[in-house]
Each structure stands twice: as C-alpha cells, then as structure tokens.
Amino acid sequence: MGSLVWLVLGLILLVIEMLTPGLFFFACFSAGAFTASLAVMLGAPAWAAWALFFVVSLLAILIVAPVARRWMKKSPAVPVGLDSLAGQMARVIEAIDPDTGKGQVRLANGAIWRAISDQSISEGSHVEIVRVVGARLQVNLSSEATSNKEQL
Q: Pick from 26, 30, 71, 97: CA 20 to 30 A from residue 7's CA?
C-alpha cells in the first residue's frame, strides 16, 4: 500500500472516530495508519508498514485510550439552562394548591414562575425546586425555610 492510501485510511478512521463519540477506538487505528504512511514515505517495505500499523494501533489502544476515557469521565456534567434550577430555593408569592394547579414562586434572581406541588403550600413559605415540568416548577416545602429567608 502506498503512502497516500495509508494517509487516506488514517483520515477515514478519524472521521469515524468523530461520528462515534466516547469510544476513542478508531483514533488509535488512525494513529497507526499515519505512522505506516510516514514509514512508507521514508522508504520502509510494505511488511514494515503493516507491522508499524499494528504495533502503534495496539499500543494506542492499550495506553492512550484508557487515559483518554478516564479524562473524559473526570469532568462531571454541569447542569445548564432550566436543568440548573433543580435544587435552588424559592419563596412562594401565591399559595400553591395541588387541586387547582395554581401557585407562583419567586427565585433568588427575582424571576417569577408558576409552581406545582403534591401538597398545599402557603404564601411566604420557602420551597426547594425539584424539577421543571413544562412551563412550571415542581417544588417541595423546604426543611431549611428559616435559614434561607435572608437569601430570597
């Protein structure tokens, strides 16, 4: 196989890697193909290019791939957007009635949201946001209501 063929194979394997996130498997073979391409450019025989391809690919799979997987798992997913509201505290500004679905809360940033709960919660109570359901916040009565009055 010529140098150009190894180079194209390496590029194809990189594209496959980009289409299969999280595996980091095809990139290892791509490194082997690029190494074989370089060897052929430097005048190595075909058997040496194949040997380099397999050796570099195997080493990359055994050494680089586990390190890359560990690094990818290291950074925890940080909730963004509406998902970041879960766990925040809010103050009830309109009593929450589970039967009628009425109720409103004010977040610490001043935003007002419609709220729902499995229990009746009176105006002025502090609640914890459980999750976003459509355009409403599902909340539970906070056990830390007195300690969070200063924040809201």
A: 71
